[in-house]
Amino acid sequence: xxxxxxxxxxxxxxxxxxxxxxxxxxxxxxxxxxxxxxxxxxxxxxxxxxxxxxxxxxxxxxxxxxxxxxxxxxxxxxxxxxxxxxxxxxxxxxxxxxxxxxxxxxxxxxxxxxxxxxxxxxxxxxxxxxxxxxxxxxxxxxxxxxxxxxxxxxxxxxxxxxxxxxxxxxxxxxxxxxxxxxxxxxxxxxxxxxxxxxxxxxxxxxxxxxxxxxxxxxxxxxxxxxxxxxxxxxxxxxxxxxxxxxxxxxxxxxxxxxxxxxxxxxxxxxxxxxxxxxxx
Length: 280
Known about the structure:
Elements: H1 8-12, H2 20-43, H3 46-66, H4 69-72, H5 77-96, H6 100-106, H7 110-119, H8 125-133, H9 136-150, H10 153-161, H11 163-185, H12 196-218, H13 237-279
Helix pairs in contact: 2-3, 2-6, 3-5, 5-11, 5-13, 9-11, 9-12, 10-11, 12-13
């Protein structure tokens, strides 16, 4: 039965709080919160509170995408695209710029924290592997391949029928998002930090591949993503597909361009300061 008669209120009230995913995310959030409290209490820094809040909203978005209404109606294509947007473009930068890594370490007793710190010391195997997989060349290529592969109609249609493929799709999108945003956020661990100019070039290189996929979906003449799947609010199949493509095209690239603008003004400000120092 198609979901044409569902109201907007019914849509947003549809949650699955008895699911395994809910308990997994709730447990992860609890660990993050306890670890953040211990870390903030130890450092007494107000800046850490804002970082905690970024991580907090990351978990909120994850709940909305994987437990809330977007998870309940994810067979509808435009809903599916919003779900992907949240998992690739919104959650990863919030997590990486928050207290995710440090808070999860601080959750454990001091002795275990020392062991973890030794395990990820600068010359350890883990740090070397992390340096490789967070290098801009790898993260950008992995992001593009993951994006293009999972938006091939054959994989979308398979994900509708096989849970394992469906969960794999979510996993790869989330991991590709984490890796993609790693060089942009500029974490102290992993690959060598990029300067602001290279971060802007990095983001520009990602805009075109994303736009190509969005254009392919939006401008397609026929239905290529699930012909017999539920469509919400009386939307026709081809309209559902075009709306999904536009969601990827406009909000997705808007996040890229917004981040580019922030980096540009930071770079410009830095150049101005350096120029004044040189003149003086």
